[in-house]
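Subject: Sanity check before I submit

Could someone independently write out the structure tokens for this chain? I want to compare against mine line by line before I put it in a report. The sequence has 211 residues.
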Amino acid sequence: MAPKSSSRPRADSFIARLKPTDETFKKMLEQIRITNSKCKGHSIMELRKKVSDMCKKHASTPKGNFTNSRIKQEWSESQIKDYNTYKEKSLAIGPAREAGRAAAKEAGQCREKGENQAVQERKLHHAIQQLNVWVRTAIATGAARLEFMVKYCPEAFKAKGANTGHLIAAESALLCAKNAVRKLEHEKRNLAALHERQPKRIPRGQLKAAL
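---
Independent answer below. Compare away.
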């Protein structure tokens, strides 16, 4: 007798890699909506699951003796344009990550040296700004890869394992964004703590009344 199949939906493997402290990041992926036609209305989280299911569906499909370079010769102009778009976005992650890390490190060093609060606040605002750029860049890269796969795969990549490889690359970009969000939330907490330590200003009218 064949085993009964469970009607319970399978847990999302990507969500399983997130920690309870990553709730802000998870909400970002659930709230950001794709605006392009074929993926319009989908959240990034939904899009990732859609691509994951697609890769599993075609994992056992015979690929034949294909190579990516050979298949790319058959691509349309729109495919080539979309491919180059997400490749350009991928190249932007590195500089954005390094700028974010450098700004956060500088803010930390400023705090350790006991610089005055005005300087610390300026450094923290700069760090938050740079970390936001890192977050947006990494998410945009992951989304662009996922959109490409929904539009053109599995036909676009017939080489063995190519579709799964591109899903892993998209997830890596999103996990990079997760690390940026963690740092961003940390610096926001540092800024809030700094504001709490600042002496409260008494309005001039109240000050005169007190005197």
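---
OP: Matches mine. For the report I'm noting this point. Residues 50 and 156 are 16 Å apart (CA to CA).
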